[in-house]
Amino acid sequence: MKLLTFRYNNKVKVGVLTADGKSVMPIGPLGLPYDTMLELIDGITDEQRAALENGKIPGLPLEEVELLAPIPVPRQDVLCLGINYMAHAEEGARYHNEAFGGERPFPIYFSKRVNEAVPHGGFIESHQDIEERLDYECELAVIIGKDAKNVKAGEEWDYVFGYTILNDISARILQTRHKQWYFGKSLDGFTPMGPWIVTRDEFQDPPSLAVKSYVNGELRQNSTTDLLIFDIPYVLRELTQGMTLKAGTIIAMGTPAGVGMGFDPPRFMKPGDVVTCEIEGIGKLTNTVK
Fold first, then answer.
1. Other CB atoms within 10 Å distance of the CB of residue 101
2. Backbone angles phi, psi at 5, to 5 degrees
């Protein structure tokens, strides 16, 4: 099931993409009392989920609605995995002229502030007044379905609501200058997300998905979630040992090799560039740099 947030007649609604992918079925006429995706994640029951999956009401043509990010305003900062593919770790070390020993014994976690996520078709702000090295990072994002604390081995998947695509836009100068990633990852317009959430039941556990990105139609990243160094169960177990992950929390699982800084010379984005992130089973997230 593909769940999305959209605007129609100046009202923001939550809906389900129909099986043919051509229209949106609003959840309101199905009797579900949720105005936002976060409310739906918090409250949906098994009976309501069945109503969504089996509902048959007239849909709105997809081209007539304005897609928003599935969670336009996240409840908390997005949690991110840094350098969670070995080939990306190698290209990052080359860019920074650092030695890389081929080991990643512990995950790198950071957070990304999001005032408002950018939807499919929206614009990525280039912030040329403070940044000249704008980069893209296609990532699988995990949406937590219920409050998670002290998650036990074997129970991890019970906490996963679904998945979406996130482009972790990065300001490489700021990221390097400040010796940490928060500022360089959190500028306005730096979190394209979407086009929708695909519920966990549409995938195997763990999901084995192709991850690709394109800049102006040129394939840049081409990998698979099979190559994650630290997988979803590991991350859920480790993080929840010391913190509570609220329902609706978004975890970006890291990006594979092929980002702009990985080329020699680097190939950063500029205004007018179109970047598409594609993840198998979810869809495509396309945005333009302005």
1. 7
2. -110, 135
Kindly report whether the global pTM for this prediction surpasses the value 0.90: yes
- Tens digit of pLDDT for each residue in 154-197? 999 999 999 999 999 999 999 989 888 999 999 999 999 999 99
DSSP 8-state assignment for residue 85: B
Q: Dihedral through CA 115, CA 7, CA 43, CA 20, nearest 10? A: -120
For residue 106, the number of C-alpha atoms closer than 13 Å in the C-beta half-sphere is 4
Q: Other C-beta atoms within 10 Å of 10: how many?
A: 6
In the chain, where the domains are located: 2-68, 78-289
User: What does DSSP assign to residue 104?
Assistant: -
- Residues 26-47 as b/e (b if ≥16 CB within 10 A, e otherwise) read bbeebebebebbbebbbebeee
Which fold does the domain 78-289 belong to in CATH?
Fumarylacetoacetate hydrolase; domain 2 (3.90.850)
